[in-house]
Amino acid sequence: MFSLLSKTFEALKTGGSVRRPQPLKLVRPSRQPNIQYYGYMVTTEWLIQFAEQHCPGALLDRRDSGYEFIARTRGYEYISAWSRICYLGLKECFNLAVIPADTVMVFAVFSDQEESFEERPTQETVDFMTKSIGHPPQWWASRIMLYELRIFVAAAYRAEDVDFTTSRRSVALA
Fold it and tell me: What is the mean pLDDT of residues 35-57?
């Protein structure tokens, strides 16, 4: 933080500019009915082993009934902090190329949605994650379809106030 701040001030003093690192060069996939996530498939066992290897002091006794949950959570928290990917999520996804498709857990680095795709991490960050996890990322389809997500969001509003074709809420002025 301090070095970035000092570089910014130095650039301002000298009239230069501070370059933002270039995001990962990747082509966005064509739209699907499901949100697509770019990330790494992980298993519960992998998360537990990762936690046992990198943060054993933060775990409960193995005989404790909450051991697996805490180990999974600590593994996720540790790699999330380690990678410095602000929005690293753990999503339930499936591979569109495999029929029938079983759902898997995926460390979602970013999605095909406009805002998320534009904020994708650098190649260096993805390389670090790939080395840490042991296999490259790929595109995965969310288990939740876009229209299901729209209906879920719309449920928070009265049905007559929602236009389901655009997912926008109409506001009636009194």
Answer: 93
